Amino acid sequence: MLAAMSTAIRIQGLQKSFKDTKVLRGVDLEVSRGSIFALLGSNGAGKTTVVRILSTLLRADGGTAHVNGFDVATQGADVRQSISLTGQFAAVDEVLTGRENLILVARLRHLKDAGTIADDLLERFSLTEAGGRRAGTYSGGMRRRLDIAMSLIGNPPVVFLDEPTTGLDPEARLEVWQAVRELAAGGTTVLLTTQYLDEAEQLADRIAILHEGRIIVNGTLGELKQLLPPAKVEYVEKQPSLEDVFLTLVGARTEGGHR
């Protein structure tokens, strides 16, 4: 019972095919409450498919998935009440101001004091000065921070961020990284999908590598690095990076053929 309470997301044997293409081949995963969990993989590895199933946008062919204690297949409404989803492209209305975007979402969720909610989120994401400007004038990083702020209205305990820094410049990526860290610091569970190795390395408490529809490794950054041979000492000791781990593991399975 305690284990269930401490687990925000549990996936067992998840399978999904599109016609003759098997995208997920039995994915098993657990994400602890209040943590940042990175699902790492190349394009086409199945990361977005996992998120779409967890957010009830897609039905799995096999296996089970629970979010915040609710079965995604049979308790979809409860799951949707528990989550927010931020996709690869910012879903803001560029004609409205930043503050108006937030107020609109708060009203759609039938929340009281929409203006107060908007002002609090603008302050939390360092957008107060820009709150009266049209969102269309925002930089990429500001727009993405506003998008994440919008997803937090209603205080969902679980947030899915599907490749949130795609297309952003380095400065904007750092802004989003800080926003993600603040989410977890506030107790929100974050499932982050990314193909950027440094993003997973910087943000995640735990990292899983999804390759050819299966989780091939799952652990902390330190645990993943221990999967490679010890660092060779020449003049400088070079510890393996997450990039070394990813390329070694994925490359080994690619050379060995599909399983």
Annotation keywords:
259 residues; 6-stranded mixed β-sheet
Note the topology.
Elements: H1 2-6, E1 7-18, E2 21-32, E3 36-40, H2 47-54, E4 62-67, E5 70-71, H3 76-82, E6 83-86, H4 98-108, H5 114-124, H6 140-151, E7 158-162, H7 170-185, E8 189-194, H8 197-203, E9 206-211, E10 214-219, H9 221-225, H10 242-255
Parallel strand pairs: 3-8, 3-9, 6-7, 7-8
Antiparallel strand pairs: 1-2, 1-4, 4-5, 9-10
Low-confidence stretches: none
The radius of gyration over CA amounts to 19 Å
Tell me the major beta sheet. 6 strands, mixed
**Proportion of residues in β-strands:** 15-25%
Query: What would CATH call the architecture?
Result: 3-Layer(aba) Sandwich
The portion of residues assigned to helices is 25-40%
Number of domains: 1
The CATH class: Alpha Beta
From the 3D structure, determine the CATH topology: Rossmann fold
Strand order of the largest sheet: 6-7-8-3-9-10
Structural class, by secondary structure, is alpha/beta
The end-to-end span amounts to 35 Å
Give helix and strand order, one letter per element, not per position.
HEEEHEEHEHHHEHEHEEHH
CATH homology-level superfamily: P-loop containing nucleotide triphosphate hydrolases
The coarse silhouette is: globular
- What is the count of DSSP helices, taking H or I runs of 4+ residues? 10
Count all strands and give the number: 10
- Summarize model confidence as the mean pLDDT: 89
